[in-house]
Amino acid sequence: MGEPAKVFEFPGEIGDRKIYVVHNAPEPADHPAIQISISRQDSVHWISYSQKFRVRELKFECNDKHTQVHPEHPFYREFPRDSGEFQAQINSGPARPEAEGCTYEAFFEFEDGSQVDPHIQIGK
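Predicted structure:
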């Protein structure tokens, strides 16, 4: 009988899939940004239980370097060009390294035309 496979341990933690439930209702005035880590390969998993939605736009807001240098698309998926269809859940995939320190506003549109705009901050 063969030897059992060796178990290897990876150093540090590997990415987190951050679940964010989007609602087609008014957002509270203070809704904190989703924190995404590039080095950990975090991603955002947006879910709606009420109705399907789509990413209408990801808009650059600012970066902590106080410059206007930023990638147009903070994730490897290029929203909204990646898919214009309404869906019950959408995953961002990992963030691009050149987006480090940037904050984006995501605009989601629901099937009924209502919209929400959660914020995303990308860190190392």
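Summary: The chain has no helices and eight strands.
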